[in-house]
Amino acid sequence: MSIQHQLERADLLCKQRGVRFTPTRRNVFTLIASFQGAVSAYDLLDKLKELEPNAKPPTVYRALDFLLTQGFIHKVESLNAFLFCEHFDEDHPMQLLICNGCGLVVELHDAAIHQAFEQQAKLNGFAIISQSIEAHGQCQQCQKIAPNTQHQVPS
């Protein structure tokens, strides 16, 4: 799906929800949608400055907070980065596979994993407010390049 189509879908959702999709929010949405994989806030800021020369870190962080709240993006906690979500107009479970070699991030939507996790939380008397399931390893391409090589999780 094209970025323009994603932008139109997001714009419609914002109108339906009664929230403002400001030019800066739209720019950050477009930038993050153009990245293949996860991107840091500072990498986004560098790109945003090309469109908005006066942009500062709080500008990006406010836009990212909005996009997270609206479900347009996911935060990759272990990388302190953000990932565009193509399924932002549906409520869905989410798990992430992260390649330590090349940085590829794959978004999964496995309801069984989600339900099992919720069930385990309930059995342990825990009420989940937010959930981030991330697994680090090697993608298929990196396994071909360096099989049996263990990479450390980025800090």
From TrEMBL:
Localization per record: Cytoplasm
InterPro entries linked to this entry: FUR, Fur_C, WH-like_DNA-bd_sf, WH_DNA-bd_sf
Listed Pfam families: FUR
UniProt keyword annotations, A-Z: Cytoplasm, DNA-binding, Iron, Metal-binding, Repressor, Transcription, Transcription regulation, Zinc
Source taxon at top rank: Bacteria
Primary location class: cytoplasm
Similarity section: Belongs to the Fur family.
Subunit note: Homodimer.
Protein known as: Ferric uptake regulation protein
Species, as recorded: Oceanisphaera pacifica
